[in-house]
Amino acid sequence: MMGVEGMRNSTRARVAACCLLAATTFLVIMLMAGPVASLTTASMTTAGTTRLQLVASGGGEVVPPDGDYLSPAQRAEIEAMLAANIGMLTAAGTLTQPRATEQIALDWPLAARDGFTDPGYHAITGFVDHTPDIPNKLTDYACGGRTYSGHKGTDIFMWPFAWNKMAAGDVTIAAAADGVIVGRRDGNPDQSCNFNSNSWNAVYVRHADGSIAWYGHMKRGSLTTRGVGSMVSAGEYLGLVGSSGNSTGPHLHFELHDYQGQLLDPYIGSCNPLEGGSWWASQPNYYDSAINKLMTGTGPVSWKACPLPDDTNEAIQFQPGDRITFSTYYRDQLNTLPSLYRIRGPNGAIFAQWSQTIKPAHYALSQWWWSYDFPASVMTGTWRFEVEFNGRTYSHTFYVGEPATPTPTPIPTATATPFPDDYPRNYLPGVMRPSAP
Ligand SMILES: [Zn+2]
Questions:
Q1: By three-state DSSP, how is residue 180 classified?
Q2: Is 97 in the same domain as 246?
Q3: Which of 8, 109, 253, 255 lies at 20 to 30 Å from 148 by C-alpha?
Q4: Residue list, CB under 5 A from ion ligand 1
């Protein structure tokens, strides 16, 4: 297993790579500004006098550093704590003997807060490593390499704007199955950017079959008020996603152990042939391709160094003559899945349309943006930014001129949480690899 120091070095190497990005602009798409041929004459006339002008574009893959690490000493401490609590709860009659024959069906362990409107919020950045003892070999449940050395859980990163999401409490951790809380730990710092040997904040839930789910890296002070010995139901709030412990950014490390304490990867696949089938009630696809967010803004995102929230420049209200930046944030973008982009005016007419397909096979996380000048003569009213991707049409509404009625709900903005001056800030939240389309 790679040591902590080795991982730090690896992180530094990626920082160097990141800086190529700033100087690299790459046009990724064939773009057609203005109306498409199928428009009516009337709308073509309107659109023709108000052609949108593409002025800049960019984006690419975002590679988060390896997500986390529990040292052997930290694992031993957790296991001793759980054993002691389980002994105490069993003696008290709170815990019954495990019903080992009854396999649990796990629900998705995250949920968006009420009022969160983006179509998604996460990307998988590391599955369980099934060949932890073979150096330089990474094997996830599907025999792919989407893991890192010795990783024992599933890392579900927030994407995009992980620190903004953490500050806003956008994503909650929910119990994947009914059970009893057999351990909890809170009070540890929650803004880790690297492996700092801190302990994490976590909740541990034992299910009826004796299996135990570990929910790690929680935001400090966000844990459920339920204590050790309390029952929780599937879907019940356990805490907020954070970056406590050895962690490189806000994410959930979800780890599962069977009733004998053996590590269990809940995903079934050719390198993890589970006899009873997947432990997920509905196992997501290996490539769970989707767009997490469509955004309009006053300019490209200003990505900040960990752990600062990004300056998103998000806006939905504009005026004629403004420059508007359109951006998208994908998880599991594949080169077999083209995207079709459209900007529609208030009359439904298409003012710009383009398509995009990446050349590399897969990006776990990616972001793309295009800035258009909207001329002073542009139609006012409610506009739409649409993307067709993987069988779904995503739509985002923005306004030019007077706000439409009812007045759109303001977009919540995250505030930066103060952090010590000596806090490590040695890399950006993701390394953007310049890559040819
Ligand atoms: Zn992890």
A1: strand
A2: yes
A3: 109
A4: 67-68, 153, 155, 253
115-160 pLDDT, tens digit each: 999 999 999 999 999 999 998 899 999 999 999 999 999 999 999 9
Assess if residue 339 is contained within a domain: yes
User: Does residue 355 lie in a domain region?
Assistant: yes
Side-chain half-sphere CA neighbours of 278 within 13 A: 16
C-alpha of residue 148 to centroid of ligand 1, in Å = 9
Q: Which two tokens stand for residue 410?
A: 């303001």
115 CA distance to ligand 1 middle (Å): 28
The residue assigned the tokens 């069993």 is 90
Q: If you measure from the C-alpha of residue 273 to the centroid of ligand 1, how many angstroms do you get, rounded to a whole number? A: 21
Pairing type for strands 202-206 and 179-185 reads antiparallel
Length of the chain: 437
Cis omega before residue 273 (within 30°)?
no
CATH number at residue 400: 2.60.40.1930
Q: Are residues 21 and 130 in the same domain?
A: no
CB-based burial label for 3 (10 Å; 0-12, 13-18, 19+): exposed
Please give the distance, rounded to the nearest whole angstrom, from the Cα atom of residue 233 to the centre of ligand 1: 24
Q: What is the pTM of this model?
A: 0.82
251 and 103 part of one domain? yes
Whether residues 140 and 177 share a domain: the answer is yes
Q: How far is the CA of 308 from the centre of ligand 1 (A)?
A: 21
Domain range for 224 is: 72-264
Residue 428: pLDDT band (50, 70, 90) is very low
Separation CA 316–CA 296 (nearest Å)? 6
Q: According to the 3-state scheme, what is the secondary structure of 12-66?
A: HHHHHHHCCHHHCCCCCCEEEECCCCCCCHHHHHHHHHCCCEEEEEEEEEEECCC
Co-location of 192 and 43 in the same domain? no
Co-location of 33 and 151 in the same domain: no
d(CA 37, CA 426): 50
Distance in Å, CA 241 to ligand 1 centroid: 13
Cα(293) to centroid of ligand 1, in Å?
Answer: 24
Question: Does 252 lie in the same domain as 323?
Answer: no
Residue 83 belongs to domain with CATH number: 2.70.70.10
